[in-house]
């Protein structure tokens, strides 16, 4: 068997999202005997498992359903799928997204043509089921081929989404690659770790995956637990590189990725979305940067990644979280009054 596609499922009945996703996978142009779909229900509380069981009865040769008795988020569900996967390659699909009918045939063809052990594509973002939206050039065509240090520096900073790739399963098992469980943003932790284990990346430069943005998407939620998970994801991939004695070799790239995920995105998400400032969080962020990358503002691409105002705010936060919060809230108030916006 050439391919296993693992789909974590949690409460995806509404709006026919799960059915639409499954249909896109069941109607791939690959010969049916060449791929399997492994759907892992992560203790859903709606009819998702029932929908999966019915689809399994209709397609027993291609669809395998695993019912997890406990919820361990997407990472845990994907790990359950990896335990039973049989394909030469493994792909991942989110249960509210869908694939172009030729997506996996094209990715496998590229893998066979080049010998790559990871192959990716682009995706498009849509807010309408079945619709097409803006294409996201998530992968730069200039970064393909053997995984040199230049390539690794790029993929640490910009690993791209894991759902738009297929991975050689023998490498996954050789390096015991799995996902962190019981947390959100598991891709942000796993992606830069996984890419360090593969020898060659190739690209099908087409938007073959549809990323469906809707109000229930994880990306729209920024409560305290999700912010903590984002911070955990940042610490996780840097700790992995340090444990494998690779932190110094990839210092600048790791610093750039960590600063963005652990620090900047978390800090500004909290300040923009929360009416009350969590000073404990602000202190944890400052301490995390001092512990992991005290020199983050000296990394060459820091000025390219953040504009002058962002750099000024970050500098103020590192000096005093309370002064930063006071200045940021005053700035928000001023802009609401003057321009009617944050």
Q: What would the keywords be for this entry?
A:
alpha/beta, Spore Coat Polysaccharide Biosynthesis Protein SpsA, Chain A, 2 domains, ten-stranded mixed beta sheet, 13 helices, 47% helix
What topology does this entry show?
Layout: E1 3-9, H1 17-26, E2 35-42, H2 48-58, E3 63-68, H3 73-84, E4 89-92, E5 98-99, H4 103-114, E6 118-126, E7 134-136, E8 145-146, H5 149-157, E9 165-168, H6 169-174, H7 186-195, E10 200-212, H8 224-243, H9 251-273, H10 279-292, H11 302-305, H12 308-319, H13 321-339
Parallel strand pairs: 1-2, 1-4, 2-3, 6-10
Antiparallel strand pairs: 4-9, 5-10, 6-7, 6-9, 8-10
Helix pairs in contact: 5-7, 5-9, 7-8, 8-9, 9-10, 12-13
Question: Can you describe this structure in just a few lines?
Answer:
With 342 residues, the chain is α/β, with parallel strands linked by helices. Helix content is 47%, strand content 17%.
Helix segment count? 13
Alpha-carbon distance between the termini?
53 Å
Q: Report low-confidence residues grouped into runs of 5 or more.
A: none
| Rg, Å, rounded | 21 Å
Order of helices and strands: EHEHEHEEHEEEHEHHEHHHHHH
Structural class: alpha/beta
Quick one: how many beta strands?
10
**Overall structural domain count:** 2
Explain this structure.
The protein folds into 2 domains: 3-218, Spore Coat Polysaccharide Biosynthesis Protein SpsA, Chain A, CATH 3.90.550; 221-339. It is 47% helix and 17% strand. It contains 13 helices and 10 strands. Strands 1, 2, 3, 4, 5, 6, 7, 8, 9 and 10 form a 10-stranded mixed sheet that branches. The longest helix has 23 residues, at 251-273. The N and C termini lie far apart (53 Å). The model has no long low-confidence stretch (mean pLDDT 95).
